[in-house]
Amino acid sequence: MNAEPVQWSEEKQQRLQECLVGCWAEDRWELKGYKDGKCYLHFSFTSPSLKTELKYALCYKFDSGVWDVKKRQNTLCYRFPLLVTWLNQVAPTTRSLLEKPIEYWTWSLRSYLVETDQLKQYPEKHLLATQEYVEYIQEDPHINLFRQCYKIIADAYDNRPETEKDCWDMRKLGLPVNLTATTNQLNFAPISPPWLKHLAKMFMKYNIAVRSPGDCYDKLTVIRNFSQFLTRYAPQCSVSDIDRTLIVAYISFLQERKLSVRWRNQTLIRLRVFLETCAYRLQVPGLTKEHLIFDDDLAKEPEARSREIPEEVLEQLRDHLNTLPTSLLRMVTILLECGMRINELLALPLGCLIHDDRHDWYLRFFQSKSHREQVIPLVDEQVVGMIQAQQQEIRMAWGETCPYLFPSSHSHLLPYKQLNFYLYLNKWAVKHEIRDRTGKLYHFNSHQFRHTVGMRLINDNVPLEVISRLLGHSSVRMTQIYARKRDAELRKELVRAARKHKTVNY
Question: Is residue 119 classed exposed, middle or buried when 0-12, 13-18 and 19+ CB atoms within 10 A define those classes?
Answer without folding.
Answer: middle
